[in-house]
Amino acid sequence: MRLPQVTLDTTLKDLYGNSVHGPEGRIALVQSVACTELALSSKVGRNSKYLYVESTFCSTPLNCSREERAEIQRTVAIQFLALVPQRDVFCAGNMPIIIFDPDGSDKETAHGKVEAKKTMSNLTADQRSKILYFAGPQDISMEANGIDSLVARLALDDLEGYPLVIDLDTNYFLNSKLALSESGLPSPKSVSLELKDFSPAPTECCAVCMSRDSEIVIPDDCTGVRGRWLKSRIRDILDHISAQPIPFVLKNQQTFGGGGTFKVSSRKDVADLKALLSTRILPKLLSGVGPSNAHLKPATLILSEMVQDPICDWGLTFFVRRSGQCVYLSATQQILDPTNAWIGSNISYPAQDQLRQKFTPIMLEIGAWLHSYGYFGPCGADILEEAQGDHRPTTMKIVDLNVRTSGSLTLGLLKGHFSEQRGLHHATCFAISVDMTRESFIETFEADFTDGRIVIIGWYDDVSSGTSYGYLVVGATDEDGLGRRVAGVKKLASVMHF
Question: Could you give the CA distance from residue 383 to residue 340 in angstroms, rounded to a whole number?
């Protein structure tokens, strides 16, 4: 089946412009997602310095079996090393992009490359990226591929030592919740719970710790100072949370993929949150702080006011040029699941001119702050619009900054494909898992694909399980039609967050 090719309105290559060959030389984007819970492959290690609290970190029990952990690792590796990078590569344009291979046989490695090639074939040839595959960060060959500097999507431990356009500490800081809370940008009032110290080394503790010094978490049966330190710090944090006026929002320092953010509206929510923090999150998070990363304050928790009855949950995407100029890309309405995790976004193309005017002031504020730290590149901002009453103008509160490619970025680049060429003035993006192959899925929705109403921007057929993971953009003439098309997909597939 021959599908219509997509021409994006612009690409990251276009937006970077001359910066692609600026003072840093020729740059390449590294699109892997960082994971602190586990190693993504034998060559893509667990992040132990730059700690991230994402859904895998929050949901994985401390003492799961080896078999359970292996299955979690395989699924997460597909999402973090294949699906998310494909989604970001789709909007990158004709520039080098680095992707790391999941573990597996030569056949499985080749399969991942074929999947990415199929997805990129949806683009016109001049907008396809030059994808460079490596087993892991340590295998990146810069000179042989004409690369002088790297741009990391997230701070990967294993990229230390490489020439980076934005150094890893700055990357980590700009994406942190503490940075936003102290930035002076319009955001909900908050207080931070900072860890003032870190645990002693295993060699300074008991026999239990010395015999298990490779474990991520301070052992439950520790009989020395480390176990007492951990229990004391967890107790202090839980006491602060118990005393916090309800409602409130708790955020970990670094979050994505539906993990690390908790809305608390009742005493039951407080009890549930304390149970999760004490049994899963805090033992791992506090154990992970040490001499190499204490300056990053990775275990800081942010307690903020909850924005009451917001009018809309917006996702603003834009690009900060090297000069500090900001290029508006889109404002979308975000779709959240019952746990407050992002699972997609909706866009109205006819409304974008009006929304550009509405969001330009706050975009310029954010851009100036990022520029002051030397950042240039894509940015996403989660913004709640709040009513003030008495016919006063609404206010905007930034509740999160994603100083990187965001999940809804591609929506803003498809106005030409959907709205101008096909009269599809509304679109949505979301991720799915489905028990059929890419080819079967396309055949099921053949008319939508051949008419350009559905575009795949990421896909991976997991041959061993029979489950496929996809990232879709769906367009329709109006909101009702969009709802019907999405409902048709959801009859066969489950919506994911990551």
Answer: 14
